[in-house]
Amino acid sequence: MYRGMPPAERTEILTDVYSVISTNRQGPTLFAAIVDKQALFYKYAGKVDPYDRAFEGLCTMFNFFLQRVQKRTKTVLRGIVVFDEARPSLTRQIRALLAQFQAGGTRWATMTNLIETAFFFDSRNSRIMQLADFCSYAVYRWYVANDASLISQIHSKFDREGKKIHGLKCYPVEAMKRLP
User: Fold this and answer.
1) What DSSP string describes 86-139?
2) What is the pLDDT of residue 122?
3) Mean pLDDT to the nearest integer, 136-145
4) pLDDT tens-digit profile of 26-42?
5) Kind of pairing between the strands at 164-165 and 160-161
6) Considering the domain boundaries, does residue 4 fall inside one?
7) What residues contact 152, with CB distance under 8 A and at least 6 apart?
8) Which of the residues 40, 109, 129, 164 has the least number of beta carbons within 10 Å of its own beta carbon?
9) Are 55 and 94 in contact (CB under 8 A)?
């Protein structure tokens, strides 16, 4: 459906969606892990799985965010990890990794605020998952295609403390590009 639309109509939809994301005062707070597969392979001689590293980074970012909000609000917070089930082959891997992180933490932190299981939804049936797809697309266009037009509309929604952005990381870190 989307691919068959005239370019002007697609642009209008993209503008509307990113406007909704960026102008919502209370949320969402965005998190994204970019894996530069070639740089990761080169740095670790192929010994690091890109999906493992991305998921570990996302879990750590989300957990730190929940800890900061919990400290500020003095309210116990728990977070749920939700995935698009478009890649069923990753389901077992993601569940095993989350269990591993729950038991022993990630390389950066213990997981004190994530519940013990991941949930999988079909993004075609969930509006919030569709918003996540749009955010992923903006990150992809910026990082892979050097097109910052979409991410520039939502970059303020990535988790941050002051000017320090916590919600957008690249693995390996050396491959990170500057945001617009």
Assistant:
1) T-THHHHHHHHHHHHHHHH--SS----SEEEEEEEE-GGG-HHHHHHHHHHHHH
2) 79
3) 93
4) 878 999 999 999 999 99
5) antiparallel
6) no
7) 179, 180
8) 164
9) yes
Residue 24, pLDDT > 70, answer yes
Contacts of residue 90, Cβ cutoff 8 Å, sequence gap at least 6 = 51, 83
Tokens 């870190």 belong to residue: 173
Q: Are 161 and 29 in contact (CB under 8 A)?
A: no
Q: Which tokens sit at 99?
A: 């269990």
Distance of CA 155 to the CA centre of its chain: 12
The reply to whether 64 falls in a domain is: yes
Q: Is 3 within the bounds of a domain?
A: no
- Identify the H or E element spanning 140: helix 127-143
Domain that holds residue 99: 9-173
